[in-house]
Amino acid sequence: MAAAPLSFGAQIREELTCSICLELFTRPKVLPCGHIFCQDCLQDLASRRVPLQCPNCRQQVRLPPQGVAGLPDSHIIANMCERFQQQTSLSGETREQPQSGNRCSFHPSELLELYCKQCQIPICKQCLEQAHDDHRTTTIKKVAQEKTSTVQALINEGRNIVESYLSFLRGLRKEEKILNEQKQQRENNIIQAYNQIVQKLTDRKDHLLSESGENHTQNLDRIQTERDRVLADINKLSAACDRAEQELQQGWVEILSQQTALTEVVGKYRGKAAPTPVQTQPAVFQPTDTAVPVLGHVMVQSLQSAPIPAAPAPIPAAPASRGRGHHHGNEIQGEHQPQKMSFGGTGSETGQFRGPFGVTVSDEGEVFVADRENKRIQVFTLQGTFVRQFPTVVSGEEKMRPNDVAMDGEGNLWVVGRAQSAEFAVQYNKHGRVLRKFDLQQTGWMRGVAVDTRRNRILITQITGDRDNKHGEVQVFRPDGTLVRTVGQQQGMEGPWYITVDGEGNILVADIWTDCVFVYNEYEQLLFQLGDKGSGEGQLDHPHGICTNRAGNIIVADWGNSCVEMFDKTGKFLKHIATDMEEPWAVAMARDGQLVVTHCRIDSVSIFQLNPLKCH
Phi and psi dihedrals of 4, rounded to 5? Predict the structure, then answer.
């Protein structure tokens, strides 16, 4: 029986031991796969192995910008380790007490050999003479024997409680194993569904190519048949003419004999109509205007009938936390992320990007993407089909790297960017012809552009100063380049980049350095700021692109938290439109409710269907 507490302690220690250093957890961090390790152990592992993999399940780990320190903490495990250490220390003290506990606290030289039944305390012989001489007493040994059954019952009850907790921990391990198996099976099913759709598309492609080839062969056969018929007639006429010429050179007798034959052949073709063009019937391929097939949905089901064994008391759930790439916040129960299609890829070919920094959408549904490092604007349909492109020419052959693009009320584009010599704002028509331009102050920082179509003003963000002393503002220009005024100099902006104007003329600026959005009214007075640094509801981490919808809701590309957020027109957080995104960069809304998002790091563009919301 004496070994039981040690066995229990060993089992608890095993559950609270890091599998890397084999010590109790220190600052435990939780990986996306659910396994827990010490922060220092993970830090050492990450410095030696790139990319980092979980030591237990070998799943690859994408670290947040802060590195290992940015991973979620396991507060429950940390608290359990602290309590276990305290309990271990207390147990050590208890084992040392019997030696001193056998002596009387009032008479240290005397042993506690008697028990006062009236006072119910152990006493020594001197205590008996001085304070308990008229009390009923007995020996310590006899009292201990009498209380053995009570103590043993408590021991048994304690053992049962310990076993229930150990059973609970065993249940957690079993559930963890089941979850890993279910995840693998779920991913296999997703891959299988994808392969089936790809196979169907491949079969359809082969069928269409076969139909196209058959049509082409039929048209070629018509042409060849007509060619053969005309060549036969040409040969007959040519032969008759050749014979007549030969006889004409030999003498009159022969020509008289050949005249009848020649007259017959020529007469045969004299009244015959000339060959008409062959009527071919070339086929035309018309792609269906259908959405990209949806593989399916990953949904959280209701709890099944085999629950994890319950502990005697419930364990509080850890606070919801979110790092980059994690779902978080006030998700509406049962609501799925909107349907999405993506296109692009890294490169310089048509349809590829090298830094899609800015985006805008015309009323006709054309998507204009500022392809920065390729120094061009590319145009696509809302189905992702490439339409055309044009270089961002400043003058002559000089081109600029476009940082952002916006559309004015006449359907022309305003692009801000940087060439080797200076920074510019250039107006292009939809096909890339330069309409006008004006110089901007050379600052070296990124800029955003928006158009106030109601007052025909061009709004351009500007950052001045060095990295440790930055100042931000919005410059308001007339289309001819005349500076009308500046906005936001006194409100503490440090890194204004992307900017938009809503349907009421309010100006909204995303500030990447203060992690918030500044909102000004049409008279350029500050209304409010929304967001602050963090990953919870209503918090932002380096906000980039910004736009609004018809309802006036504010949509922000939350770059650092890998998601797109929606706030109402007063700045109240509403929901997460999309999460687990690859660093969303710029955003724009289309008339029919599509949200266009660029991803600069992976050089792609995503389009989400957000009906019934519609843009301005």
Answer: -60, -45
Residue 47 · residue 39 · CB < 8 Å: no
Residue carrying structure tokens 């100006």: 507
Condensed to tens digits (0 to 9), the pLDDT of residues 447-461 reads 999 999 988 999 999
Residue 493 CB-half CA count within 13 A:
29
pTM confidence score: 0.49
Structural class in CATH, domain 15-92: alpha beta
* 452 vs 475: CA distance, rounded Å: 12
> Considering only the top CATH level, what class is 340-609?
mainly beta
Which helix (H) or strand (E) segment holds residue 150: the answer is helix 148-250
Q: What does the DSSP 8-state code read for residue 24?
A: B
User: According to DSSP H, which parts of 251-270 are helical?
Assistant: 252-270
DSSP string, 57-76: T--B----TTGGGGSPB-HH
Handedness of CA 10, 13, 14, 19 (dihedral sign): negative
The span from the CA of 605 to the CA of 600, in Å, is 9
Give the separation between CA 362 and CA 59, rounded to whole angstroms: 43
φ, ψ for residue 539, nearest 5 deg: -100, 155
For the segment 550-568, what is each residue's pLDDT rounded down to a tens digit? 889 999 999 999 999 999 9
Q: Hey, which CATH number is domain 104-146, 3.40.640.10, 3.10.129.10, 3.30.160.60, 3.10.180.10?
A: 3.30.160.60
